[in-house]
Amino acid sequence: MNEQQQAAVAATGEVFVSAGAGTGKTAVLVERFVRAVCDRGLDVDSILVITYTRRAAGELRTRIRAALAERGRQDLARELDGAWISTIHGFCLRLLKAYPFAAGLDPRFRELDDAQGAVIRGEAFRTALEEFCRDGDPDRLRLLATYGADALRRMLTGVYETLRSAGRPLSLEVAARSGLDGPVEELREAARCLVDDPAATDNQRSAATQLLALLERDRRPDRLLELSGFRASGERAATYEEARRAVEQAALDEAAARDRALLQELLERFEASYAEAKAPSQRSTSRICSSMRATSCATTRRSASASATASARSWSTSFRTRIACSASSSISCARRNRRCSSSATSSSRSTASAMPMSPSSASGEQPRRNCCP
User: Where is mean pLDDT largest: 1-15, 143-157, 272-286?
Assistant: First the structure.
């Protein structure tokens, strides 16, 4: 390891490490994990490691296992099978699987993968669009005719994913517009140059000629949203293509500003439809419980609720974490001391790995926060 990597490994307290791709962030994290369990004596299941992809989590687990084996700690290497090394989705899935009733979920729920999510989003948007246009409102039908169903789906589902990923409310914010006239004039000039270019192909000149004719008779934003029929390929048409795409974007901005209220309503309908499509198991939870013996169901719920409440209290008072970010990936690691009181161990042993505690949580003192790079 180089000097900076060694400093990151040896650092104590709250540590934030920012580094680019290929600089050894994973190696630093592996070494900190190994030293924590081998030198400091922390339990393997008391360390939480979060990364963004399953592949990165698997690689990290493999490298930690190899490092522990090199130190002759095969016992600790075997414990890695249950270690908290995963993506955020994986961590949440494991936690909710342990306490489904406390979270109001069907125990049979599962994580939605990308392929299934795409299918459900498409179906949910189709349902939302049908409800949106059901009453035959002229403005809504005009919106559908202007953008087309496929374009609306791509636009609004993309906005939904972007806002949800950023943790922002589902509110459409229209970008500041510079107007459509400027981009249209630039496109007209680029099209004329392409028509007059002796090195241009017949197809390039034909596309530019047809587009010039369109710009002469119709410059409404609704008509300029889709100009792919006038596309021209090749190096000679590069400027023309750039100007054509700029006009499409400017026309979209103009139309979106005008139709913001309608698009916002359709986005909200899609959100509700998507949430309903994802949660059939939640609606069936009551039916599952009613089919079980009443006493068994009640006992299960009380037990899960009590454990989850105790764990949540432990979490809020003793577990703090920060995310160590980099240009290519972010990993956070929160550690607790394994010396918990015997009462805390006996009452929440089943959730100790998910709810790390420090000795201070038992005494009421403010816990000390630590974060691995």
Answer: 143-157
